[in-house]
Design goal:
The protein is 30% helix and 22% strand. With 352 residues, it is an alpha/beta fold. The strands form five sheets. The chain has a nine-stranded mixed sheet with strand order 9-8-10-11-5-12-13-14-15. A two-stranded antiparallel ribbon has the order 1-2. Strands 3-4 form a two-stranded antiparallel ribbon. Helix 2 packs across helix 3, helix 4 packs parallel to helix 5 and helix 8 crosses helix 9.
């Protein structure tokens, strides 16, 4: 192999002397290059470990943005998952999980409120010592990331970190940075921690007021948030309904929609069996219920004429809706909403 020519250096001349050129013995500095460069064949031959899962099929290692509207039950869901993963056994009623330490940053709560919520969620079961709770944390760019990294260093077998809510620690954007770049950088900071420790970090966040056919577009902020995250989850629940839907997409998670049920007595969310479409409220059903809410004791004919639905469709739908408990029959073939249960106000306080 042909050797490269020797490197030379020029020695400054003395008085009235020509410059001297001699070999340069100083070590050559490494040239900048790619951090890791693969050839296609070597990459295909490589073996990589499977992603670590906090909740298989739902929460993988990396950053997950868990978004939903106010009072939909995000905090109940995230705290319930924290308890379930810390204790091990089953999460969301059906998914087997391995036990391990969990850090839960409840940045909008007090210890008293957390105690009350966990009392509901545990329903008499013993609280797991592996769940660590903190109610304060500085912004990530002001030392918060070091605190989280320090806890993860002390707990190398940690399964999950939950930040509820992300807005409390994302910090201020640098002047002149675009909104997209600011959002991307804000999620990029916890992502570095998640990637380094191989742990799931869940950022509880809000959605826009405007609904969208694409659930990713409902995440509050720019597309930079969902773009930087490894997984995005949006929790939706029709107002006044216990059932909800969990929309999931991500790099290591298959895109899916899961039907959910909320237990008003304990605050626990659980997956419902079967496809989500089987549990969705149809357009006819929701239209009928919405009209009857504002116009109690209406007949199917009145509902059809006011909503534009076909009379035969409404005539068949009303008895089915009444049989499910979402309407009640009145005199003269009319329908109204069910009577409120005496303790409805108390159970409604759980939804946050």
């Amino acid at each position: 192999m042909t050797q490269p020519p020797p490197r030379l250096r020029v020695v400054p001349p003395g008085d009235a002397e020509p410059p001297i050129v001699e070999p340069d013995d100083t070590p050559e500095q490494p040239r900048p290059g790619f951090h890791s460069l693969w050839t296609a064949d070597r990459l295909m031959e490589a073996t990589f470990p499977e992603p670590k899962w906090a909740v298989p099929g739902i929460l993988a290692e990396g950053v997950t943005v868990l978004a939903g509207p106010p009072k939909v039950g995000k905090s109940w869901l995230s705290l319930g998952l924290g308890l379930q993963v810390a204790a091990g056994g089953t999460a969301l009623g059906t998914i087997a999980v391995n036990a391990g330490p969990v850090l839960y940053l409840a940045l909008e709560d007090t210890p008293r409120r957390l105690q009350s919520r966990m009392g509901h969620l545990l329903a008499g079961r013993k609280a797991p010592a592996a769940l660590h709770l903190e109610t304060t944390c500085p912004p990530l760019n002001q030392g918060g990331d070091h605190l989280i990294a320090g806890w993860l260093t002390e707990h190398p077998d940690a399964r999950m970190v939950v930040i509820d809510v992300f807005a409390k620690v994302r910090g201020q954007a640098a002047p002149g940075v675009s909104a997209y770049d600011a959002d991307y950088a804000a999620v990029g900071r916890p992502k570095k921690i998640a990637d380094h420790f191989g742990v799931a970090i869940v950022l509880v966040h809000h959605v826009r007021k405007q609904a969208s056919d694409d659930f990713l577009a409902e995440v509050s902020g720019t597309n930079g948030l969902a773009g930087a995250a490894d997984t995005t989850i949006v929790l939706k629940r029709a107002r006044g309904k216990a059932d909800g839907f969990l929309h999931v997409t991500g790099r290591d998670v298959d895109e899916a929609e899961h039907a959910m049920q909320f237990d008003k007595d304990t605050g626990n969310w659980a997956l419902l069996p079967g496809p989500a479409s089987e549990h969705a409220v149809s357009d006819t059903r929701s239209t009928v219920i919405a009209y009857v809410r504002d116009n109690p004791y209406s007949t199917p004919k009145q509902i059809a004429e006011a909503t534009g639905l076909a009379y035969e469709t409404v005539k068949r739908a009303c008895p089915r809706i009444a049989d499910s408990g979402d309407l009640r029959r009145g005199a003269g073939g009319t329908y109204a909403l069910p009577l409120a249960a005496p303790d409805q106000g108390d159970s409604a306080e759980l939804i946050t």
